[in-house]
Structure formats: structure tokens, C-alpha cells
């Protein structure tokens, strides 16, 4: 096994390890460990994110991103050139009744197939972590 294969296998295992830490039902865990794992088995993963609340995940590839949603059983694939990043910083604004910092990675695609990967925070303490995620998104988009 060469280094590229080892790196690919390591990143796939890291992704599956992060999925295993979620409080998912047996069916959703099986879906990730069988169906999703078989689809990405020979794929060079650059990174991933997991939504601990919904169980959804985003897998960053060289020229695209895969969105995996266990509740719907769907895996969407979005080419990089159809993705955009939006950041809304409301620090210092009076009467903010919503998140003070919000970032969104979204796609321009048909209505029921749009990607909307949104991360928000309500505390200034959490902003640096979210800014780091956005930095990774922008770095990947411009790669």
C-alpha cells in the first residue's frame, strides 16, 4: 500500500470515527458505515465536518463536496464551482435577536437539491472556532 492509499484510508477512518461518536440510531450508523463508507472507499477526502445535532455530514473532496443526510438517506454531490460562502457578523449591533456570528456554505442548484451548511454562534467566545471553520472552507474553495 503506498502513502496516498494510506492517507486516503486514514481520512476515511477519521470520518467514520467522528460519525461513531454521534448519538445516532442503529439504522443511521449502519447507513454511514455500510452505504456511505462504500461510496467513499477509494476517494481522496481532504476534510470533513459533522453536525452533531442532525447527524448530517459534509465531506470535502478535491473538486467537490458530498453532503450526507442519514434522515433522508440521501447523499448529494456538489461541484466546487457551484458553492459559495457567506459570513454575517453582528457583533456590536444592538438588539440582536439572532446569532451574533453566522457562516454558511451554500450551493446554487435546483430548489430541492440546494446545500445549506450553516454554522452559528451566540457567544463571542465561540467565534474564533467558527472563523477557523470558515477559513478552512475558503481555503478549500480557492484551492
Supply the helix-strand structural class.
alpha+beta
- Helices and strands, in order, run as HHEEEEEEEH
Percentage of residues assigned to helices: 25-40%
What integer is the average pLDDT?
Answer: 91
Beta-strand content estimate: 25-35%
- Name of the CATH architecture: Roll
Shape: globular
For the sheet with most strands, the description reads: 4 strands, antiparallel
Query: What is the top-level CATH class?
Result: Mainly Beta
Report on the structure:
By secondary structure, the chain is α+β, with helices and mostly antiparallel strands. It has one domain: PH-domain like. The chain is built from three helices and seven strands, in the order H-H-E-E-E-E-E-E-E-H. The strands form two sheets. The chain has a four-stranded antiparallel beta sheet with strand order 1-2-3-4, covered by helices on one side. The protein starts with a helix and ends with a helix. The model has no long low-confidence stretch (mean pLDDT 91).
Amino acid at each position: 500500500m503506498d502513502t496516498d492509499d494510506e492517507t486516503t484510508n486514514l481520512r476515511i477512518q477519521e470520518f467514520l470515527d467522528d460519525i461513531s461518536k454521534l448519538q445516532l440510531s442503529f439504522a443511521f450508523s449502519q447507513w454511514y458505515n455500510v452505504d456511505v463508507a462504500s461510496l467513499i472507499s477509494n476517494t481522496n477526502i481532504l476534510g470533513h465536518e459533522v453536525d452533531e445535532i442532525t447527524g448530517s455530514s459534509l465531506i470535502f473532496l478535491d473538486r467537490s463536496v458530498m453532503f450526507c443526510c442519514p434522515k433522508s438517506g440521501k447523499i448529494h454531490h456538489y461541484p466546487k464551482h457551484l458553492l459559495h460562502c457567506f459570513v454575517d457578523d453582528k457583533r456590536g449591533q444592538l438588539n440582536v435577536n439572532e446569532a451574533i456570528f453566522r457562516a454558511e456554505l451554500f450551493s446554487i442548484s435546483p430548489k430541492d437539491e440546494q446545500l445549506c451548511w450553516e454554522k452559528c454562534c451566540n457567544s463571542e467566545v465561540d467565534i474564533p472556532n467558527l472563523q477557523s471553520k470558515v477559513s478552512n472552507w475558503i481555503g478549500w474553495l480557492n484551492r
